[in-house]
Every structure is written in C-alpha cells, then in structure tokens.
C-alpha cells in the first residue's frame, strides 16, 4: 500500500500571493534543474506522473504544491542553476523561493536534491543556507547513485556528510534502481508528522514577499 494514498496536485504559484493558506505542515523539495528532483518526488510518493519530468532541464517554472492529505503538503520548488534560462526568469525564481522560505510558517523541513556526481555546487550551498536560516531540518538526497560504483558513491556520501557537518543529513538515492527510496520516504513522513503551527495567519501572503 502506498505511503501517500491521497496525494494530489493542489496548486501552482508564480507569485507569493498565490501560495495556498499558510496552515498545517509542509516539506519543500529543491534541487538543480538536472539533478533528478521530479523523478525523486515521484519515486518517494509512488506516483509516476505527480511531478512533471522532462528531458529539458528547468521544466519546473512555478512553485508546485501537492496535498498529501488535509493539512499536509509537499512543495516542489523551481529547479535552479540552469544557464539557458533567461536572466530575468532566474531572478524571479530566486526572489520567489526566497519569499517562500522567509514567510511560510508551515514549513517543517527541506529535502535538497543533488546529483551524487556533482554535489554541493554554489547553487546547492545557497539553497542549504536558505533552508538552514529557517532552522528547519534539512535532508540531502544524492540522486543518480546508480551512475557510480558502490564504493565511489559511498565516498561521495562521506564527503558530503563531512562538508555539511551537523547542518544536514544525507543519503544515497536512485529513482532507477530504487536505492534509498524507502529511506527518503521515511524522512519525508517524519517531517510531515511535525506539529502544525499553533496560530492561523490572517489574510493571504504579501505578494511583495515583505514580512
């Protein structure tokens, strides 16, 4: 039986004022455009077409909210670090994501997806800093582990764990072979089990992102 039997697409947001009500609990998933973020979301939720995958990096151009069940959401953030995306669009994405991390009181954790062959890029470090600034748990999923031999993949994992210290946890993952999928699913479920906020915000989020 699926761990997420009721998961469904909820809404997409191009601006902060389009975010759904800031109640309950949500976990954000972020990653470089070609790191396999959408495939990881689909594998974790056991839904092949939940997050749209594409052969063209940068397919996720909005913040997509998926409802796990009442009051619990998984949030797919736009892929970052893809040079072919026009500069103004990259700036808009960055501003939107920064607003999300700053104003979402329901955020209880972040999954940061990285290609195991090229982890901890400058963009990855920026995303880690955004998540850690909120003092929410951060878990790194090193995708495409099947592309490396077991020894090389474990070595990369050890390097990442050493680099982030206690600032985040990390694991190997492959949506193709299934390695680490259950582990990542367990982390998401634990984060979604966190207590929701005590107070309900009044009114929609400020579209300018101002707090």
How would you describe what is shown here?
The protein has 211 residues and is of the alpha/beta class. It contains five helices and seven strands; from the N terminus they run ββαββαβαβαβα. The protein has helices at 37-45, 87-103, 122-133, 150-164, 181-192, and strands spanning 8-13, 25-31, 63-69, 72-76, 107-115, 138-143, 169-172. The chain has a seven-stranded mixed sheet, with helices on both faces. Strand 5, helix 3 and strand 6 (138-143) form a beta-alpha-beta unit. Helix 1 (37-45) crosses helix 5 (181-192). The longest helix has 17 residues, at 87-103. The radius of gyration is 16 Å and the shape is globular. The model is unreliable at 199-211 (pLDDT under 50).
Low-confidence stretches: 199-211
Strand order of the largest sheet: 1-3-4-2-5-6-7
Reading the helices and strands in chain order gives EEHEEHEHEHEH
User: Which oligomeric state applies?
Assistant: single chain
Number of helices: 5
Mean pLDDT: 87
Class derived from helix and strand content? alpha/beta
Q: Largest sheet at a glance?
A: 7 strands, mixed
How many β strands by DSSP? 7
Percent of sequence in beta strands: 15-25%
Helix content: 25-40%
Radius of gyration, in Å, reads 16 Å
Question: What distance lies between the first and last C-alpha atoms, to the nearest angstrom?
Answer: 41 Å
What would you call the shape?
globular
């Amino acid at each position: 039986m699926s761990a997420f039997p009721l998961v469904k697409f909820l809404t997409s947001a191009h601006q902060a004022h389009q975010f759904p009500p800031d109640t309950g609990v949500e976990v954000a998933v972020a990653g470089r455009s070609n790191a396999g973020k959408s495939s990881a979301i689909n594998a974790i939720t056991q839904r092949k077409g939940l997050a749209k995958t594409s052969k063209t990096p940068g397919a996720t151009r909005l913040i997509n909210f998926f409802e796990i069940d009442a009051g619990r959401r998984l949030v797919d953030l736009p892929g970052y670090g893809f040079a072919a995306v026009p500069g103004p669009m990259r700036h808009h994405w960055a501003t939107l994501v920064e607003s999300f991390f700053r104003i979402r009181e329901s955020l209880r954790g972040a999954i940061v997806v990285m290609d195991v062959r090229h982890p901890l890029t400058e963009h990855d470090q920026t995303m880690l800093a955004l998540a850690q600034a909120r003092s929410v748990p951060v878990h790194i999923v090193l995708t495409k582990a099947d592309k490396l031999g077991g020894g090389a993949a474990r070595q990369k994992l050890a390097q990442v764990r050493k680099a982030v210290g206690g600032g985040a946890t990390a694991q190997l993952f492959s949506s193709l072979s299934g390695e680490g999928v259950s582990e990542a699913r367990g982390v998401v479920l634990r984060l979604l089990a966190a207590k929701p906020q005590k107070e309900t915000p009044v009114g929609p989020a400020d579209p300018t992102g101002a707090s």
